[in-house]
Amino acid sequence: MAREPESGPHYWPPGLERDDHGELRIAGQPVHVLAAEYGTPLYAYDAEHAGERIQALRSQLPADIRLHYAVKANPNSQLLHRLAPWLDGMDVASAGELLRAQQAGIPARDISMAGPGKTDTDLQAALDAGCVIGVESFGQLHRIADQARDQGHRAPISIRINPDFRLKSSGMHMGGGSSPFGVDAESVPELLEEARHLPVYIVGFQVYAGSQNLQADAIVDAQARSLSLVLELCPPSIIPEFVNLGGGFGIPYFPGDRPLEIEPVAAGLAALQEQLHARWPETRLVLELGRYLVGESGVYLTRVVDRKVSRGETFLVTDGGMNHHLAASGNLGQVVRRNFPVALATRLDSPETETVSIVGPLCTPLDRLAERVRMPHAEPGDLIAIFQSGAYGLTASPVAFLDHPLPAEVVL
Ligand SMILES: *Cc1c(COP(=O)(O)O)cnc(C)c1O
Question: I need a labelling partner for 104 at 20 to 30 A (CA). Which of 10, 76, 301, 349 fits?
Answer without folding.
Answer: 301
